[in-house]
Description:
- The chain is mainly α.
- The chain has helices at 2-6, 12-33, 44-65, 71-78, 81-92, 99-115, 118-121, 124-147, 153-175, 184-211, 214-220.
Amino acid sequence: MVMKMANEYFSPEIFVTYRFSLGAVILLVFAYIRKIPLPPKKFWGWIFLTGLFQIALGGSIVQYCFQFLDAGLVSVLNYTMPMWVTILAAIFLNEKLTKQKIFGVTLGIFGIYVLMNVSISGDFYAMLTALIAALSWAVGNVIIKAKLSKCNAVAMTTWQMVVGAILLAIYAATFDDYRADWTFTAIACLLYNSVIASAFAFFLWIYILEHMQASKAAISVLGV
């Protein structure tokens, strides 16, 4: 809801750039205070990929979709992520695809079909784009589970966000039309999304993902 509101004050790419840049700074300060070392060299390639898929692509695509769709619809489409994680985890993580999971994925796909009724919900291409964001998030989750489960959660979250923020800043500087109306509400939107919904929530999510099956952890976010 706050992300949707932020589009009234910022262009989408500028907002996500500010959001994740500030979130990255907060995590860097925390890591410095706690003297958390850099991740080992073997993890950096995978951290770059999670920064690309989860932060840069996932964050920017969702923010873009809020221009064309209601907050509730974008959230539901974005949180189809557990379906894609369940499928990808069965392929790449050898997590068992049980009858219950197959039923859940099938029901979810039918639900997407119902939601993507253009006459009711609006822009078909924006809805499809929101699904791409969910798939991007799912790919990042599988990479974390498969390749980064032994990396310190704080260090991984920090540098994932740094990578994503740098990629977003490059994109915003190159292609985006700068728009920022610095009102009290705009600053509140930015602070909420940077401190709580980025730095704090991403750390919690990665901690959960490290301690559960990827498919089960993904389902936990459906409370949104």
